[in-house]
Structure formats: structure tokens, C-alpha cells
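Record passed on underneath.
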Amino acid sequence: MDIVALGTLIGLSLTVFVAPLLWFLPQSDARANRFLALFVLIAGLSLLQTFLLHSGLVFRYPGLSSLGLSSLGKSCYFALGPLLYFYTKAQSDRRFVFLSRDAWHFLPVLISFAAYLPVYFASPAVKLQAQKLYFSGTATTAPDGWGGLEELAMFLTIHLIQYIVLMLHLAVYAVLTL
């Protein structure tokens, strides 16, 4: 286990403690705290996928890579901007109430999830190669006769597009939050 895995494990333990505390804290504004609790849970999901990668559990137990935590987490990141926006709105405007018409802010989560469907259904071998690529920083050598290169290229293209769109999405919500 490397230092990153140890640090994320500490962060995960804090997430497990802080999120329920924020959700059930009776003294302050429950509306705002629930948005913040969901924000912390999504950050915890990011920590979980980082822990699984850096601890080597994904490489020892390839079945973990087929859970799709990494892809699910990337889709959930699109909720971070709206959650922070609604948290700030609930803190600054005491009359604010989250209505069903505000749910459109979370539409990018569903769109991202749909875009990642090919990744969810990718073979565990392709997911494992993508994770090895993540750690090596360069192309990995594929076994002879391995036919997953096109699938791996699609996986990495989806990831790159999602990353760029996510950064733009978060920038828009940062401006809205200000």
C-alpha cells in the first residue's frame, strides 16, 4: 500500500463520519447541510476509487474493475457543481426551496452516465489495461492477439471528452456560485 492509498483511506474514514453528521445535524440549516453532505459523499466516491487503484486491490481482484466505480464516480462528478451552487444558494437565501424544476441542473449526471455505458460494459481486460495505462503514463503493451485495442481507445476517448466537459461544467458552476 502506497502513501496515496493510506491518505485516501484516512479521507474515506472522514467521509463516513462527516456526511451523516452533516445530514442529521439538527442545530443549523438542514437544507444547506444536506447539499453539502451529498457533496462530501461524491468526494468520498472519488476517494474510494483512488484507494482501490493505489492499494492495488483492482489489480489483485480484477472483478473490482468491472464494478464500474471509476466510471460511475466520473458521472457523479457532474453533480458537484450543482450541489455547491444549491448549498451556497440555501445558505445565502433563507427562502430558497429546492423544487422539481431545479432538477435540470443534474441532467449532466444522466448524460454522462449514458455516455459511459460502453465503458460499463467493457470487458474486465480492457478496464484493467486502462488502469495500467493510468499508472504507467504511457501506452501499455497488449498481449499478442488481444483484440481490445479499439475498445481501449474508445474508453480513453470517452474519458478525455468527459474530463474536458467536466472542467467546463465546474467552471460554469463556479461562476454561478460566486
